[in-house]
TrEMBL record:
One of its GO terms (cellular component) is plasma membrane. Residues 1-24 are annotated as: Disordered. The keyword tRNA-binding does not apply. InterPro entries: ABC_transporter_permease (IPR051393), MetI-like_sf (IPR035906). This is ABC transmembrane type-1 domain-containing protein. It comes from Dictyobacter kobayashii. The keyword rRNA processing does not apply.
């Protein structure tokens, strides 16, 4: 049995697969796409700024506050390092709350997800008689609350003919 041989023509490379893009050309095309769609980024920019101001900054600021002795009012002045974490780990109230939250997560969340999935499957079953009625009853509080609030606000803001 003979093993087939492969000959390389002049100028051919031994590299198999698609040709590799150079990093600079990819960055150039990415930048060109960003510039081309800059209007879309302008629409997203206000939400991105709000996200940074109300989510990212408070997250990092609160991480910084954990290193200070601070009562929540005024400026934190006394740097305590990791002593706050040592005190929390040694607190029995913390461990009670932690066990309570862990129990809630491990026990109740799977039960709620299972019941919600079962209810959704039952209500979407075409053979189930009255599924439209039960869907309406289930969804009615979601619809009526904003409607009632709208009527109440309208009554509050109406001057009933007074000038």
């Amino acid at each position: 049995m003979q093993v087939p041989t492969v000959s390389l023509k002049s100028g051919a490379s031994e590299q198999s697969g698609p040709p590799q893009r150079k990093n600079n050309s990819y960055q150039a095309t990415l930048w060109q796409r960003i510039v081309q769609h800059r209007g879309s980024y302008l629409y997203v920019a206000p939400m991105f700024v709000l996200y940074l101001v109300f989510s990212v900054y408070p997250l990092f600021a609160s991480l910084g506050f954990t290193l200070y002795q601070w009562n929540g009012i005024g400026d934190p002045t006394a740097y305590v390092g990791l002593d706050n974490f040592k005190r929390v780990i040694g607190d029995s109230l913390f461990w009670g709350a932690f066990i309570h939250a862990a129990t809630y997560t491990v026990v109740l969340v799977p039960i709620q997800l299972t019941l919600a999935l079962m209810l959704a499957l039952i209500l979407n079953n075409p053979r189930f008689r009255g599924s439209t009625f039960y869907r309406t009853i289930y969804f009615l509080p979601v619809v009526t609350s904003p409607a009632i609030i709208g009527v109440i606000v309208q009554l509050i803001l109406t001057n009933f003919g007074e000038t």
